[in-house]
């Protein structure tokens, strides 16, 4: 199997749409990672009979647009694991100089739907390498397809339909498009590709961040905005080199399309004529045009694309192709690679499980125990850290005085709590005493499990990261729940006021910080069954990467 393919499509446009699944099935069969699709109908210029291939302009018609869309929409069903790029730099109605396609991944195989003589194949591939990123020695393979008509009968369009198919699509010197573009998927690619095709000179792209993404499902595991911008830029320059791309991070729904934006440039805006939207962002486009009218700027024409159906979605995911569904599929998988910690024994394998208040950490712990893990409950060990007769007891009394000792001779927790919970410095002083003692007890418990031959130990610790106990763990797992849901749980379960629940939540580290330091993320927001699916997935993947006796291991992430 090849890693990266260039597919050269030469069938007449009138036949092409019906056989797109055949092309994609062949790509799926021979390619493992990436596929670039070049649409060049036979008869376009000198390419019809020549092995000296050249880039030839193809008019950007309604039919061409629909074929590009069909490649993307069909790919989500036929070869969803492949990273698909439909090349559109030569699809234009203007007399522009066509640029070489320089891909981020050079192609090691070329697929074409017309036969090239064996003695000419080397020359043909060599001519392609001047126009596309193709490795030296790339293989050439012929794809045999049907004629493209059902039952062998030529499709007939009435005159009006044929005229519509051949109608040239209006292009603009400067178009604009916006989105989140987290984990770039086929829906994003269609939106960006449409924006590319509709522009002849410049494309402005707004990539949302900050308050614009805070309400997104599992926003904590979104790619950083700079990474998303970089990925979008790479995609755009691959599919249509030669355009002037302007990419911005935006924190509202307007970005550089309105004069009040700090990124607004009147010179750039002078040529801006079109905004490309999805069905979900139509209202946002209306707001932009309303604001532009207030500011005395011309309205932008609007082009809207349909959402693509996700044929593989589960009952807990959206019916359309979406980043939210992709993020859900990452729950329970390895988000950040496991770093080998040479100071830790290979066995038992220790998982540090953490999470904020009311995030379902305890329930996840119970599920892991049901799958075979042994549990170390750090909250219970915390009560033992300063019982009478321990070093912790002596240090607490020395630090806070004999008044914290109750009538039974033990530390009186309510009295100690009044001292530390209203004073950050005093709390830190207590933590400096108690946390090391808990760590010592944890170590003893792990050693006991080791002697029993335990394979996996889960360290159940709400303050795992704050106390730096992650140094005792091979991996860190965290549970998260949206902020609003946590507050509601505290109000319902703990009978706190909203204000008190908010204060308690604000005193903890954020979900985002936990995620940044975790290898695996779980979310208990949804039904019991879905949480169980996440835990079982996490456990199954963990079992695959557990080290062999006497050997350490490392694993790559899905980020």
UniProtKB/TrEMBL annotation:
Domain Cytidyltransferase-like: 176-329
Top-level lineage group: Eukaryota
GO function terms (MF aspect): ATP binding; dephospho-CoA kinase activity; pantetheine-phosphate adenylyltransferase activity
Gene3D superfamilies: HUPs, P-loop containing nucleotide triphosphate hydrolases
Coiled coil: none
GO CC, alphabetical: mitochondrial matrix
Catalytic reaction annotation: (R)-4'-phosphopantetheine + ATP + H(+) = 3'-dephospho-CoA + diphosphate; 3'-dephospho-CoA + ATP = ADP + CoA + H(+)
Cell compartments where the protein resides: Cytoplasm; Mitochondrion matrix
Top enzyme class: transferase
UniProt EC number: 2.7.1.24, 2.7.7.3
InterPro entries (UniProt xref): Cyt_trans-like, Depp_CoAkinase, P-loop_NTPase, Rossmann-like_a/b/a_fold
Keywords of the record: ATP-binding, Cytoplasm, Kinase, Mitochondrion, Multifunctional enzyme, Nucleotide-binding, Nucleotidyltransferase, Phosphoprotein, Transferase
Pfam families: CoaE (PF01121), CTP_transf_like (PF01467)
PROSITE patterns (UniProt xref): DPCK
Subunit structure: Monomer.
Family matches, as PANTHER family: BIFUNCTIONAL COENZYME A SYNTHASE-RELATED, DEPHOSPHO-COA KINASE-RELATED
Similarity comment: family membership: In the central section; belongs to the eukaryotic CoaD family.
Protein name: Bifunctional coenzyme A synthase
Organism: Dreissena polymorpha
Lineage: Eukaryota, Metazoa, Spiralia, Lophotrochozoa, Mollusca
């Amino acid at each position: 199997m090849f890693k990266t393919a260039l597919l050269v499509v030469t069938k007449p446009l009138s036949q092409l749409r019906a056989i797109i699944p055949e092309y994609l099935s062949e790509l799926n069969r021979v390619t493992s990672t990436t596929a670039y699709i070049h649409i060049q109908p036979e008869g376009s210029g000198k390419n019809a009979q020549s092995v000296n291939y050249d880039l030839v302009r193809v008019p950007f018609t309604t039919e061409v647009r629909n074929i590009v869309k069909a490649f993307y929409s069909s790919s989500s069903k036929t070869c969803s694991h492949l990273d698909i790029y439909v090349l559109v730099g030569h699809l234009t109605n203007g007399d522009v100089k066509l640029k070489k396609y320089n891909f981020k991944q050079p192609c090691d195989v070329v697929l074409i739907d017309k036969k090239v003589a064996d003695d000419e194949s080397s020359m043909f591939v060599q001519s392609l390498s001047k126009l596309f990123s193709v490795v030296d020695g790339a293989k050439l393979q012929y794809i045999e397809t049907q004629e493209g008509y059902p039952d062998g009968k030529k499709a007939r369009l009435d005159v009006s339909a044929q005229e519509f198919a051949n109608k040239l699509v209006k292009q603009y010197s400067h178009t604009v498009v916006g989105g989140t573009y987290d984990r770039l998927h086929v829906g994003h690619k269609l939106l960006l590709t449409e924006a590319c095709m509709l522009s002849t000179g410049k494309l402005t792209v707004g990539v949302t961040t900050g308050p614009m993404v805070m309400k997104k499902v599992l926003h904590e595991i979104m790619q950083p905005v700079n990474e998303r911008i970089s990925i979008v830029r790479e995609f755009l320059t691959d599919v249509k080199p030669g355009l002037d791309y302007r990419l911005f991070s935006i924190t509202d729904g307007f970005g550089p399309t309105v004069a009040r934006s700090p990124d607004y440039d009147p010179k750039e805006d002078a040529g801006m004529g079109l905004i490309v939207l999805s069905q979900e962002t139509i209202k946002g486009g209306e707001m932009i045009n309303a604001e532009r009218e207030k500011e005395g700027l011309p309205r932008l024409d609007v082009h809207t694309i349909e959402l693509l159906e996700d044929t593989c979605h589960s009952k807990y995911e959206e019916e359309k192709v979406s980043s939210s569904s992709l993020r859900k599929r990452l729950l329970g998988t390895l988000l950040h690679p496991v770093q080998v910690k040479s100071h830790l024994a290979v066995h038992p394998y220790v998982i540090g499980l953490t999470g904020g208040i009311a995030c379902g950490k305890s329930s996840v712990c119970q599920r892991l125990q049901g799958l075979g893990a042994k549990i170390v409950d750090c909250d219970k060990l915390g009560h033992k850290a300063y019982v009478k007769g321990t070093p912790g007891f002596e240090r607490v009394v020395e630090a806070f005085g004999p008044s914290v000792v109750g009538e039974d001779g033990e530390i009186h927790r309510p009295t100690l709590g009044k001292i530390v919970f209203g004073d950050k410095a005093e709390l830190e002083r207590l933590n400096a005493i108690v946390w090391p003692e808990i760590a010592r007890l944890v170590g003893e418990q792990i050693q006991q499990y080791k002697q029993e031959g335990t394979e996996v130990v889960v360290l159940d610790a709400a303050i795992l990261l704050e106390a730096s106990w992650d140094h005792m763990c091979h991996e860190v797992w965290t549970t998260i729940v949206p902020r609003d849901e946590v507050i509601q749980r505290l109000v319902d379960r703990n009978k706190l006021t909203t204000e008190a629940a908010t204060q308690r939540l604000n005193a903890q580290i954020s979900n985002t910080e936990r995620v940044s330091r975790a290898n695996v993320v779980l979310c208990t927001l949804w039904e019991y069954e879905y949480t169980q699916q996440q835990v079982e997935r996490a456990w199954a993947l963990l079992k695959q990467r557990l080290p062999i006796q006497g050997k350490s291991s490392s694993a790559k992430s899905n980020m």
